[in-house]
Design goal:
Elements (H helix, E strand, L loop, with lengths): L1 H22 E4 L3 E7 L2 E2 L7 E4 L5 E7 L3 E11 L5 E12 L2 H6 L4 H19 L2 H6 L1 H16 L4 E12 L2 H43 L1 H16 L12 H11 L7 H25 L25 H5 L20
Antiparallel strand pairs: 1-4, 2-3, 2-5, 6-7, 7-8
Helix pairs in contact: 3-5, 6-7
Length: 334
């Protein structure tokens, strides 16, 4: 009898041990346990630690609550400006409601992956190539909203979506390289032109300052000589004033003979002056009176009046009164 009791106790202990081993479960810190009793969801989600379930009646499903990093396969598409591109991305998400992730969707990972691929193709078709290359932040936000809308009902929260790479055809790469090179060349020319404009303004101001102080030009010339001589060159180049060259050129040219018209114009004032002197002498000559005897007086021969041109003689003034005859004066005998 005692032996039978011992055997029964050992058998009960063995059964209890097997039952406890079958019912014992351990939920990790980053997991949550969802219990289904006879296929019916239990609202009490098991937290991390040791827990027990009824073997054969309850079933425990563990759900990972960590952030999952999932790469989105590269998708081929045509942008709004008809450029063929190949874009891949990466998505970060986590489960916030373990019960919904188990009940509402069969495989939430696969569902999120498919939703990300379709949303990425939709974003490619709605965007331009420039937006894909330079305005990725806006596209990432739009892609995140498109994926997060259905994922909320699955108990999944989309943490972040990033477009990882954009692959372009080789012809498009060459075209973009030429465009970038032309744009850089244009900016370089504009910068050079602006620099020339500013330099010309500064040089004009310097020229005005040097024109007021001629010694400043000489000082600048000496500074240039010092700067050139500091490089230890065998040849020294000095700037030569252009005004000095022009002065030497004018000095080497022979005097050109004057034209007859110019000579006649220069001689005309002299002739007019001589004619006026002759008229004044004839007007101031005294009238002849009775000749008185006396010794003849020696006198020097009078210089002959300069011959006036015919037009000047015709314009001589006429003296009114009796006609006066000029008598020749006797010459002195030697």
């Amino acid at each position: 009898m005692v032996q039978e009791l011992v055997i029964a106790a050992v058998a009960a202990a063995s059964v209890g041990t097997l039952y406890a081993a079958a019912a014992a479960r351990v939920v990790k810190q980053y997991e949550r346990g969802v219990v289904l009793r006879l296929g019916r969801l239990r609202r009490d989600v098991r937290g991390p630690g040791f827990t027990m379930v009824l073997p054969g009646i309850e079933r425990l499903r563990k759900v990972n609550m960590q952030i999952v990093t999932m790469p989105v396969p590269a998708q081929d598409g045509i942008t709004r400006d008809n450029v063929t591109v190949r874009v891949d991305a990466v998505i970060y998400f986590k489960v916030v409601d373990a019960a919904s992730a188990v009940v509402e969707v069969e495989d939430y990972r696969f569902a999120v992956s498919q939703m990300a691929q379709t949303s990425l193709r939709s974003i490619i078709g709605k965007s331009d190539l420039d937006d894909l290359l330079s305005n990725r932040e806006k596209l990432n936000q739009g892609l995140e909203l498109m994926i997060d809308s259905p994922a909320v009902g699955w108990g999944v929260q989309i943490d972040r979506v990033e477009i990882k790479d954009v692959s372009l055809p080789e012809t498009m790469k060459r075209s973009m390289a030429r465009q970038a090179e032309a744009d850089r060349e244009r900016r370089a020319r504009v910068i050079n032109a602006d620099a020339e404009l500013q330099a010309s303004k500064k040089l004009a101001e310097a020229a005005r300052e040097m024109s007021t102080q001629p010694a400043a030009l000489q000082l600048r010339l000496l500074q240039t000589v010092v700067a050139v001589a500091a490089e230890k060159n065998s040849t020294l180049v000095l700037p030569f004033p252009v005004e000095l060259l022009r002065f030497l050129e004018r000095a080497q040219q022979p005097a050109q003979p004057q034209q007859p018209a110019q000579l006649q114009q220069s001689a005309q004032p002299q002739q007019d002056a001589q004619q006026q002197d002759a008229q004044q002498q004839s007007a101031q000559q005294p009238e002849p009176g009775p000749q008185q005897p006396g010794p003849p007086v020696a006198s020097a021969p009078a210089p002959a009046p300069a011959a006036a041109p015919a037009p000047a003689a015709a314009s001589a003034p006429v003296v009114s009164g009796p006609a006066r005859v000029a008598r020749p004066k006797p010459f002195a005998r030697h």
